[in-house]
Amino acid sequence: MSTCHFALFELQPDFEIDLDLLAARYRDLARQVHPDRFASGSEREKRQALERSANLNEAYQTLRSPSRRARYLLSLRGHDVPLETTVQDPEFLLKQMQLREELEDLQADANLAGVATFKQHLKVARQTLDETFAAIWQDETRHLEAERLVRRMQFLDKLSQEVRQLEERLDD
């Protein structure tokens, strides 16, 4: 039986959540459903414990990630946003190309200080997206805009991951 991720952690469905409270409730629940607690149980109990633990982990990962939480909130309202989708947004597509070129230049120059600045710009862009999404996600008349914001979040997540990998390579 599937339950709302927010209800699992006794949170109201909202984009802005208390991440410390989420983590604390996750730890408490994880201890309760951990499969090791059911090691001497029946096969059925063991299987159920594994399923509960997996569902708990999935719910936690979804809610702690802003882009995944945003996608989940929209899905609760009947608007599914595919994980990978082409952004039909010429302005943002141009911005994506510019950011990728900038990152490639930083990599070619092995510019660690530039990477740190680039990372800070991504953080600010992400905060702006998060704030905008938080303000509009419940407005049914703006669901297409909310979906567009989620796609932008997903792009920034991917780019941020690439930046972290580049930092690791340049630090070595």
What does this structure look like?
The chain is mostly helical. It has two domains: 5-64, Helix Hairpins (Orthogonal Bundle), CATH 1.10.287.110; 90-171, Monooxygenase (Up-down Bundle), CATH 1.20.1280.20. Helix content is 73%, strand content 0%. It has seven helices and no strands. Helix 3 (43-64) packs across helix 4 and helix 5 (90-109) packs antiparallel against helix 6 (112-136). The chain is globular, with a radius of gyration of 19 Å. The model has no long low-confidence stretch (mean pLDDT 90).
Query: For the residues shown, what is the average pLDDT?
Result: 90
Distance between the termini: 47 Å
Give a quick account of the main beta sheet: strands, pairing sense, barrel closure.
none
Q: State Rg.
A: 19 Å
| The CATH fourth-level homologous superfamily of the largest domain | HscB, C-terminal domain
Counting structural domains, the number is: 2
CATH architecture call of the largest domain? Up-down Bundle
CATH topology of the largest domain: Monooxygenase
Number of strands: 0
